[in-house]
Amino acid sequence: MINCNAKYLFIPAFFLVASCSSKDSGTASVEKRISGAWDCIYSLGEGATRMSLTAKETYMMNGVSNSIGLFKAKFSSRLPEIEYRLSGTSSWKVEDGFLVSTLNSIDVVNLSHPEFDDLIDLKEIMPLNLADRSEIVELSDSKMTLKSESDNELYHCKRALTR
């Protein structure tokens, strides 16, 4: 198993979650604005390690979110870039200007190099039931930018076009 120093860097990028309780009208307004489908991108690189994500995030007013995306990672200079399909469910809420998240379930499929699945367990890198907080840096009807407390990186989303 590879010891990945970026162990939790990806968690806030793909799944922003938790559960809903009573809330003030400002929080309810922000949650309503977040609800719906978003096309999101995230990238991170440090040394030989690079990661990127393109995902469709759908936030429902009942506090549940669904995500599906393409995750590309280069874990070291000795390994090829590996491409994964990720899908999962989460719960979410807004709390004091932060989108609070907890990953409930995840499905990971190695699309490019399944021979490395025994070496790199992506599910281990993204543990379930771990809460994360991301500051809501920008939120409009068409754009959302989040900054994760765990890695200080930005996650950019545009409202998905409805069909």
**Level-2 CATH architecture:** Beta Barrel
Which CATH class?
A: Mainly Beta
On the 0 to 100 scale, the average pLDDT is 85
What kind of sheet is the major sheet? Answer: 8 strands, antiparallel, barrel
What is the domain total for the residues?
Answer: 1
Radius of gyration: 16 Å
The tally of helices reads 3
> Tell me, what's the shape?
elongated
Q: Cα distance, first to last residue?
A: 42 Å
Total number of strands = 8
Question: Can you list the strand order of the major beta sheet?
Answer: 1-2-3-4-5-6-7-8
Proportion of helical residues:
10-25%
Give a verbal description of the structure.
This protein has 163 residues and is mostly beta strands. The chain has a single domain, classed as Lipocalin, CATH 2.40.128.280. The protein has 3 helices and 8 strands, in the order H-H-E-E-E-E-E-H-E-E-E. Strands 1-2-3-4-5-6-7-8 form an 8-stranded antiparallel beta barrel. A hairpin with a 4-residue loop joins strand 2 and strand 3.
